[in-house]
Amino acid sequence: MTQQTSTRTNPREPLHPQVKALFDDFMARRLAERVFDPVLMRTETSAMIPVLTQGAPDVAREEEIRIPGPAADIRALLFAPQNATGKALPVLVYLHGGGWVILSPDSHAGLAKKFAVGAGVIVVSVDYRLAPENPYPAPLDDCVAAFRWVRDNAASLGGDPERLALGGDSAGGNLTAATTLQLLAAGEKPPSSVLMICPSTDLAMETDSLRTFAPDDPIIDTTFMEFCRGCYAPNSEQWSNPLLSPLHGDLSDFPPTCVVVGTIDPLCDDGVLFADKLKKAGRDAALQAYEGMPHVFMLFPGIDEGQRSIGEICTFLRSRLTERAPASIDR
Predict the structure, then answer these.
(1) Does residue 216 carry a catalytic annotation?
(2) Is pLDDT at 328 greater than 80 in this prediction?
(3) Exactly one of 104, 107, 170, 245 is catalytic; which is it?
(4) Phi/psi of residue 314, each to 5°?
(5) What is the C-alpha radius of gyration for the chain, rounded to an integer number of angstroms?
(6) From the candidates 108, 160, 295, 309, which is the catalytic residue?
(7) Cβ atoms within 10 Å of 304's Cβ, excluding its own
(8) Is 265 annotated as catalytic?
(9) What mean pLDDT is predicted for residues 138-163?
(10) Are 126 and 138 in contact (CB under 8 A)?
């Protein structure tokens, strides 16, 4: 946890120059009078897509697919690396962040391509329904349905259903954990491995890192996070539900998990506490903590530690998804 940082005059100091440039950019984009309108917020963040996809590597295959969902077909973007082996590749089902309200597979396409190339996996990035139009459990229902469909149809995508990971960042990290818990509760085989990047794991929002960093955080401050929480789960009586706050769930059968945090992220403790609970349950849990890094720092160009974190995430995925001989491709 990050309790010790609360005693500093400025708990972010010394601020990394690359992080300072990122924070300055976010503050320059922020209007003096903020308007929390989901449609307007989506338009504004969509304008950032060209920036977020800078430096993305080329992939061998990029396509839009449709997955049968509980309400309608679910759009997803598929990214596949070069594969000269003639064998099926591991698959990563990815759930984007954005507070359950904004962003999309398009905003995370650059990150998804880096995972595809770096880890040698097919990435299926899910465009789940967003709140407040579709509050809990609709986004989670879409994620569970998408994972099940990919598991059942991985071979047709060139993937190996026995080497199927699930991952996400921020709200997507929350949905990743909740999807895994729901699959376990249903008696189904969970993902082979789990990736949780800067996740939200407790909607109570009462950790030391939230109290320290959230009031004036340039990326996800208290006002923004409370708005998003209200869109997704407006009733405070819901917040202790493990499918909304996975930190309260039974983690005794959780798959091997990589949790990534930045130490000046308001959600730092959410990730640290989740990793600690996994370890106490005797599970295989790797915590990657990056000193002085903010929320989802690997999503933004120009952050050297972000590129290092992607490399270490890819190392985790490779190590957990290459333990068995790959299946032959069955199209």
Answers:
(1) no
(2) no
(3) 170
(4) -65, -35
(5) 19
(6) 295
(7) 10
(8) yes
(9) 98
(10) no
